[in-house]
Amino acid sequence: MSTSIDATGHKWTTPKGGAIVAAHSLSGTAVTAMNGRFCWNRGSPFPGRNPVGRPVSDVSDESSSGKRRNPRIRFIEQFLKQGLENRLAGLLLGQLDAFNRIATTFGHEQCEAFCASYSERLREILPPRTPIIRLSERRFAVLIDCDSMSKVMDVATTLTEDNPPQLEVGGDTFLVDVTLGIAVYPSHADDASTLFRRAELALKEAREKEVAFDIYRPDATQQQAALWKFESELQNAVSRGHLEVYYQPKVEVATSRVCGVEALVRWRTESGSFVPASDFIPLAETNGAIVPLTWLVFDRIVAQLAAWNGLPEPFTVAVNVSPQILTHAEFTTRVKALKGALDERKIQLVIELTEDSLVQGDATSLASIDRLRKLGVELAIDDFGKGYSSLTYLKQIPAAEIKIDKRFIGTVAVDQTDKQIVKTVIALAHALGMRVVAEGVDSAEAISAIGELECEMAQGFYIARPMRGDLVPEWMEHYAATAAMRRGAVAREWPEPARA
Ligand code: C2E
Ligand code: CA
Ligand code: CA
Fold it and tell me: How far apart are CA 434 and CA 28, in angstroms?
């Protein structure tokens, strides 16, 4: 056995036969060389740890520490430099999706055993001497020396579709999803770190599109930059308070009485155009902007109240609350302040929660929901029917209201199946003591169809589009005055300048 240090400073241990077996400087975990080439270490401990014992969660983790250049990138660099037998090198970045599930269900030892057997399997199915690098707990990379893009795609198909990873425990077999992001040298990048970044981008895209693998597209970088710009603009708009709150009325179907409004956030960019909430709320939910955004919406509602005189009673103001807000430390205090201001005007606060918050059903969310109930806040289950509506949480959640998703309401007048579904949901909600709101009522036919099904309330473009707060009292007067003409298209003639 001899030890050598390579050009990149790694210490390699070489047994008598001459084949390199381990690269100690790669945390002792990442790479083992077989037959003179590099492979995933069969017995690598779990999770991967760096020399000071910190878990290595990701390759970029180490590079961002700035202490030394990333050894995995150096390894890819070496592979590219050593002289490829063919023209191209494909970098396949793999992510084992069910990693956390294995750990929580069967424990870390099972994860270790799974990774060891999966690395064995990879060696069997990949061409001999293909380098396989363990990057972090759930990530690995494969480097393919090949002469065409289609060969790289064949390998990706072999890894994902023909040989999906499997976990064997106690005689049972579990399929483990693997997703791959691919970038090819030199077509997509001619240096190791750009190649790696581009494979990462392709992996991200594959995961977003929920496909088994994706190959880097040159325009993906531009798209990523555009997304980043959009994200920065949103952060700016939130921190500078450049958001507005619009209000969409809800009416009682039987009496046409206005019984409340739903507050909907609006972002008007510096160029003056509106960005739909559905475009930026999901982003705000992933980058943390949803927290200040929600408090801003609460504050705007309080500020709006002074200008609302002569509201009918009872009257509700509904706000949308994202799942992560429900468990935020400041949530209860913020809700109390909002509720206090609404109570003074005898307005009932309703918090709309989507199924996402409810299906999680974790103890913290349930405790928060329970606190809301004790504070006298009403809960509405939003977008009912949009996802995997679970009937269990209808029993678990003390909701006062169910809002049937617009996808059913849009077709309720013409589609018998949707009509039956809506009818069943209404009957179920009534049996559980809840009132029902039909969302997305955008025609006279829709409102009469839901009326026949005994749905209490309606909200939608046919009644009114979301409008600026100062226009709400004026709109209500107009709506009451035109009650007799309601079955015509009166609402559409309402002068609403900033349609949103
Ligand atoms: P949502 O809570 O289901 O809100 C109703 C959405 O449907 C609104 O879109 C509204 O403009 C639209 N809408 C109302 N009537 C009709 C109709 O007749 N036809 C059609 N096609 N659409 C109609 P908006 O304002 O773009 O909001 C989209 C989503 O963004 C909301 O869906 C809600 O999930 C979220 N959102 C909006 N404001 C907030 C907020 O302040 N906080 C949070 N967390 N989410 C918000
Ligand atoms: Ca809503
Ligand atoms: Ca909704």
Answer: 60
Q: How far is the CA of 229 from the centre of ligand 3 (A)?
A: 28
Given a contact cutoff of 8 angstroms between Cβ atoms, the answer to whether 95 and 156 are in contact is no
Check whether residue 143 and residue 281 sit in a common domain. Answer: no
Residue 53 has pLDDT above 90, yes or no: no
Residue 358 resides in a domain: yes
Q: Is 491 inside any structural domain?
A: no
Same domain, 379 and 475: yes
Domain end marker among 166, 190, 218: 218
- So what's the pLDDT on residue 486? 62
Side chain identity at residue 335, one-letter code: V
Lowest pLDDT segment from 66-70, 169-173, 295-299, 380-384: 66-70
Task: Calculate mean pLDDT across residues 317-330.
Answer: 94
SS3 readout for 420-476: HHHHHHHHHHHHCCCEEEECCCCCHHHHHHHHHCCCCEECCCCCCCCEEHHHHHHHH
Total domain count, the chain: 2
Is 460 close to ligand 1, i.e. is its CB under 6 Å away? Answer: yes
> Measured from the CA of 319, which atom of ligand 1 is nearest?
41
What domain range is 72 assigned to? 2-218
For the CA of 325, the nearest atom of ligand 1: 44
CB 379 within 8 A of CB 369: yes
Is the shortest distance between the CB of 357 and ligand 1 below 6 Å?
no
Per the model's pLDDT, the better-predicted residue between 40 and 469 turns out to be 469
Examine residue 452 and state whether it is found in any structural domain, yes or no: yes
CATH number at residue 472: 3.20.20.450
Give pLDDT, residue 491. Answer: 47
Taking the centre of ligand 3 as the mean of its atom positions, its distance from the CA of residue 263, in whole angstroms, is 11
Which CATH number fits the domain that encloses residue 211? 3.30.70.270
Inside any domain, residue 492: no
- Atom 14 of ligand 1, nearest CA residue: 460
